[in-house]
Design goal:
The structure is a homodimer.
Chain A: H1 15-28, E1 37-38, H2 41-48, H3 52-65, E2 68-71, E3 75-78, E4 84-90, H4 93-99, E5 104-115, H5 118-124, E6 131-141, E7 144-154, H6 171-175, E8 183-192, H7 195-201, E9 208-218, E10 221-231, E11 237-241
Antiparallel strand pairs in A: 1-3, 2-3, 4-11, 5-6, 6-7, 7-10, 8-9, 9-10
Helix pairs in contact in A: 1-3, 2-3
The structure holds a DNA duplex.
DNA sequence: ATGACGATTATGTATATACATATTGAAACG
DNA sequence: CGTTTCAATATGTATATACATAATCGTCAT
């Protein structure tokens, strides 16, 4: 991982970008501490010899990113770091496994189409009955089970799923590409493996597992609920917090 | 929680905002599916009866948010949903406990100032030796232990921490407000409680725990490494993914 | 056919300008 | 002395304009 060294004459960046990263740098380095008033737009206009619009765009962006706060008549101020929020990347399991240099394989354990029961509706957040598809499967990294997946698909939202076997392809990648932009909620917790899980993952009952549950909506409609269960040793989630690039 | 009902005549939003949310809505609802070419700037200019700059600002923002992709000469296209990223809110533990309606209390178990050893340097990501402060403490929710905290503070970066006892205030809230904007990396995993942890949290050895580790840098300098250990039942992390508001 | 080239087109960036709006500080007033 | 009023000021939003840049398409010569 070699970063491109700052070329002295790399003048390919726009002025807007330069103003933005200059100020960002001053804030992150602590040169301008929280509460500090950063120069007025007209001062930056003079400093960078550009129009106010250009400066304004940069500052608005920093404000949207939460690094500064802008107050009419008073100026712009460095905000104090607030509630730590981190961005959690949740890749497809295939990607994760292949990143480990291991061959990936998916194997379906169970497939069941049924009218939704109360439990299904609770998991999906559905208020009315309808058909659901219940899937269980295993993701392998090489010969070892990597994650156990329990999924519920709302067939009212994705009818075509009813025609798929999901024998060797997991529903996750299948759903992406078929369902438009969606919202999701994740819940992450630790859990002791019960009989079913221990059996599937080939670990001892009671062994600690990491559980990631995801509920997905598209255009306000519940699409799927999925639970990934990882043996504790096999998986660590990584989240980064970098004061937004704007 | 009552949301303000959409007032018919709420014309307080800027045109820029209206264009932005109009298009966003069309994408999220699936009206404009991934791959669809959205109207050219000059078409939107006509539709909204505004200048190209205004339209351009809105589209640029959607592009930055990752919802659309812009190609010169070709137009702007709805992107297909990519790697699921979710925003994980990591609140102060006091906040979490109080949200449960329980009284919060912190209790220090150990405080140790020493010259960094190899293990310390590995955890903090330090290359040179120096003083570190090692802390262990318990966060209580009511009478029950809620989380066990193991922390390492780089005293070269935050010298004042050496003068603090951290008897009844955790180092986390103390550090915020003293350290400017920072970067952080989180690792989340499941773990079986060892003797020390089981003892501190008053749970059985081997019981599953959720572990959140955070490394923090400020202006490239390692500041602190902290490990929060939660009994599996007491804690669930929640992360949301909403296609960026731009 | 094939490849080179130039015109066309949509976006990218920047400017100068205008007026709206919120807030502050000072002057005017009771 | 406290309150009201008003002008000054920094930001917020929008316009019209200009030129740069990248990609595409059609034309033309080979």
């Amino acid at each position: 991982m070699v970063e491109p060294t700052d070329m002295e004459d790399s003048e390919t960046v726009s002025l807007h970008q330069r103003i933005l990263s200059d100020i960002r740098e001053k804030i992150l380095s602590g040169t301008w501490a929280p509460g500090h008033r950063i120069p007025f737009e007209h001062e930056l206009t003079a400093e960078y010899k550009c129009s106010r619009m250009t400066v304004n765009k940069a500052l608005s962006q920093l404000a949207k990113a939460g690094l500064i706060e802008r107050r009419r008549r008073s100026g712009s101020f460095v905000r104090r770091p607030q509630s730590q929020a981190a961005v959690l990347e949740l890749h497809d399991i295939r990607i994760e496994v292949e990143a480990l240099g291991l061959p990936y394989r998916y194997e379906r354990l169970e497939r069941l189409q049924r009218r939704s029961n109360a439990g299904d509706r609770a998991l999906l957040g559905l208020s009315t009955a309808g058909s659901v598809l219940r899937l269980e499967g295993l993701h392998f990294a090489g010969e070892r089970p990597f994650a156990f997946e329990q999924r519920l698909i709302n067939l009212s939202a994705v009818a075509e799923a009813g025609d798929e076997a999901f024998l060797e392809i997991a529903a996750g990648p299948w759903l992406i590409g078929r369902v438009p932009w969606s919202e999701a909620e994740h819940r992450i917790r630790a859990m002791a493996a019960d009989e079913t899980i221990a059996d599937a993952l080939d670990i001892d009952p009671g062994a600690p597992c990491l559980v990631v549950e995801r509920r997905t909506w598209s255009a306000e409609h519940p699409v799927t609920h999925v639970r990934f269960i990882y043996p504790a040793e096999s998986h660590t989630l990584v989240a980064r917090f970098t004061p937004s690039q704007g």
